[in-house]
Design brief:
Blueprint (H helix, E strand, L loop, with lengths): L14 E8 L2 E8 L7 E10 L2 H7 L17 E9 L11 E5 L7 E5 L3 E3 L7 H5 L2 H14 L8 E4 L4 H12 L5 E4 L3 H4 L9 E3 L6 H8 L5 E6 L6 H7 E9 L12 H6 L3 E4 L7 H20 L7 E6 L3 H10 L5 E5 L2
Parallel strand pairs: 8-9, 8-11, 9-10, 11-12, 12-13, 14-15
Antiparallel strand pairs: 1-2, 3-4, 3-6, 3-15, 4-5, 5-7
Length: about 350
C-alpha cells in the first residue's frame, strides 16, 4: 500500500506478513494486522533497523515485557501513519514517522505516539529514519541527562562503532565536549571514527588501553565514559576515568557481569550510573523526546547527525539480517526494508 494523503483513512487489509520468533527460530508468518489502541499509531512499515536487543528476543530471552516463542520481532522502524487512536492529537494519517515498540519487522506495526518522532523537515529516506529513534534518545539520556556533560569535558565512548556508539560521538561533540575518544577492536572501524567526531581512536582489546587514555589526558583520566561493553572491561574503565568522574553504562556487549574492584571505585570516587528505556513509562519517554527535539533537532535538520547503514536487506532475508548482526562485522546499522 502506498502512502495516503493527510486526513485520508485507507482501507486496512486483515492480514499481513511479519517476522515472529517460533520454537524453530525466526520465521515470516501471516498475521492479523494490528489495530491501534487509544494512544497508538498504526504504521505502514517501510524500514526497520536492528539493535542488540533484537538478538535477545531472537534468542528467546526477555527484553522488557516481551520475549519467548510467539514474540513479534522488530523494535525500531519508520513508515507512514495509516490510522490513529482516539487519544492521539499530535499525529495524523499520512504523517511519516519513526517509532519504537514491538513488531516492527512486519508490514504494519503499532506504536504509542509518545514513543514516535515525526520525520525531520530535511528530506531523509525511510531507511535512514529507521536508524534514528533509539540512537537519538539513548545518546541524549546517556550524555546530557544521566552523564551531565559539561562543555569542555572529555568523553570516552567504549564500543563506538555500533549505531548508538557512532551517534554518541556526534552528540558528545554537538553538546560541547572537548576531547572525544572512541574505541573499537577492529582497525578498519577505528579508522572511520574520526568521521563521526572522535579525536582519538583506541583499541579496547589492547591490554594497556586504559593507560593510553591516561596518556591522552595528561594522566588525569576521562571526565565521562559512555560504556557499551561492560563485563570484563569495568575495572580498566574505572582506571581510565578521572577521580570524581562518571561512567554511564548503556550496554553490555562484552558481558553482563564481571569482577568489580570496589576499592578502585571508592578511591577514584567514580559515579557509576545505569540507563535503560525498558523501565520507563510512555510519558517518561515522551519527556525525553521533547528534550531530544530541543537539543538535537536543529543539528538533525541541518544534516549534522546521522548513522551509517552497513547493510539493507529485503524482508524475505530477515534471518540473514539477524545473522549479520550476530556476526558483529558491521559498522553502523543493519536495516530490513519493505516493498
Amino acid at each position: 500500500m502506498s502512502s495516503v494523503l493527510p486526513g485520508r483513512t485507507p482501507v486496512m487489509p486483515e492480514r499481513m506478513k511479519g517476522a515472529m520468533l517460533t520454537p524453530q527460530g525466526i520465521a515470516i508468518q501471516e498475521l492479523p494486522v494490528p489495530r491501534p489502541g487509544a494512544t497508538e499509531l498504526l504504521v505502514k512499515v517501510r524500514a526497520s533497523s536492528l539493535n542488540r536487543a533484537d538478538l535477545f528476543l531472537a534468542d528467546g530471552r526477555a527484553h522488557g515485557g516481551h520475549g519467548g516463542a510467539g514474540t513479534p520481532l522488530g523494535l525500531e522502524w519508520s513508515g507512514d501513519v495509516v490510522a490513529i487512536g482516539a487519544e492521539v492529537s499530535d499525529f495524523k494519517v499520512g504523517d511519516r514517522v519513526m517509532c519504537t515498540g514491538i513488531g516492527g519487522l512486519s508490514e504494519y506495526a503499532v506504536a504509542d505516539w509518545r514513543r514516535s518522532f515525526a520525520f525531520p523537515q530535511r528530506k531523509i529516506g525511510y531507511e535512514a529514519a529507521a536508524c534514528l529513534p533509539v540512537s537519538l534518545r539513548t545518546t541524549h539520556v546517556a550524555i546530557a541527562t544521566t552523564g551531565q556533560l559539561q562543555k569542555g569535558e572529555s568523553v570516552l565512548v567504549l564500543g563506538a562503532s555500533s549505531g548508538v556508539g557512532l551517534m554518541s560521538l556526534q552528540v558528545a561533540k554537538l553538546l560541547g565536549a572537548g576531547l572525544v575518544i572512541g574505541t573499537s577492536t577492529k582497525a578498519d572501524r577505528r579508522a572511520k571514527l574520526g568521521e563521526f567526531g572522535a579525536d582519538i581512536a583506541i583499541n579496547s582489546s589492547d591490554a594497556d588501553w586504559a593507560e593510553q587514555v591516561l596518556q591522552h589526558t595528561q594522566g588525569r583520566g576521562i571526565d565521562l565514559l559512555i560504556d557499551f561493553l561492560a563485563g570484563p572491561l569495568i575495572n580498566d574503565s574505572m582506571r581510565a576515568v578521572r577521580v570524581g568522574g562518571r561512567i554511564v553504562n548503556v550496554g553490555r556487549m562484552a558481558g553482563e557481569s564481571g569482577a568489580f574492584d570496589f576499592d578502585l571505585h571508592s578511591m577514584r570516587r567514580i559515579q557509576y550510573l545505569g540507563t535503560t528505556f525498558r523501565t520507563r513509562t510512555a510519558d517518561e519517554v515522551h519527556a525525553i523526546q521533547q528534550q531530544v527535539q530541543a537539543d538535537l533537532w536543529p543539528a538533525l535538520e541541518a544534516g549534522r547527525l546521522g548513522v551509517p547503514i552497513d547493510a539493507a536487506l529485503p524482508m524475505e532475508r530477515v534471518k540473514e539480517a539477524f545473522d549479520l548482526m550476530r556476526a558483529n562485522g558491521h559498522f553502523g546499522k543493519i536495516v530490513v526494508t519493505q516493498q
